[in-house]
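User: Here's a chain of 120 residues. Predict its fold as tokens.
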Amino acid sequence: MKELSNVIFEGLKSANIKNIGKRVYPIVASKGAKFPFITYHIKILKPETKDRARDYYVDVVVYEEDYKETVEMMDEIINDVMPDISHNAKEYRFSLVSADVKFSDKDNVFFGIITFKIVK
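Assistant: Prediction complete.
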């Protein structure tokens, strides 16, 4: 799991996603993080099989104050960034599961949740 986390973290940070810069955080952003930023977290839903295969799911979450910007960054991650990460990390196969945009009244921010299934 640590190896996959490093692959995703470095891939997202180096992707030059519009307005994100290096603001990529595992699980939760630093207190006072400037918008926009990205968080991600990995889940294991199936134990390792006898051939050492394992299914992971990763949620990549884009936080942004503007709806249009949120959706554009989500499109960039879905269409460009994750395919590049998958191509560079040949032992992992990525596939899109879902994408959804929500709004937090409390924080007055949009957040786009993108879920990928990853098979090792």
